[in-house]
Specification:
- It is a single chain.
- The protein is mainly α and 63 residues long.
- It has one domain.
- The chain contains three helices and no strands.
- The longest helix is centred in the middle third of the chain and has 27 residues.
- The protein starts with a helix and ends with a helix.
Length: 63
């Protein structure tokens, strides 16, 4: 039981929420697309393109 107390901390839960947020937003976007009748299977690709563009923009702007 002591080992679980060392592993399960508030930092673990905040990290889980921080990491799951982009996937949750993509899932919400996919749900909205499906409800409107448009099939969008490129949600994960859009996340990757957005991450790449943000890295390139931050590199060129110096921020």
């Amino acid at each position: 039981m002591e080992q679980l107390k060392e592993i399960i901390t508030p930092a673990l839960f905040t990290g889980m929420i921080r990491i799951a947020t982009p996937l949750a937003l993509a899932a919400i976007g996919g749900t909205i697309c499906e409800r409107s009748g448009i099939v969008n299977i490129a949600l994960e690709g859009l996340i990757l393109i957005g991450a790449f563009v943000s890295v390139v923009v931050s590199y060129f702007t110096g921020r």
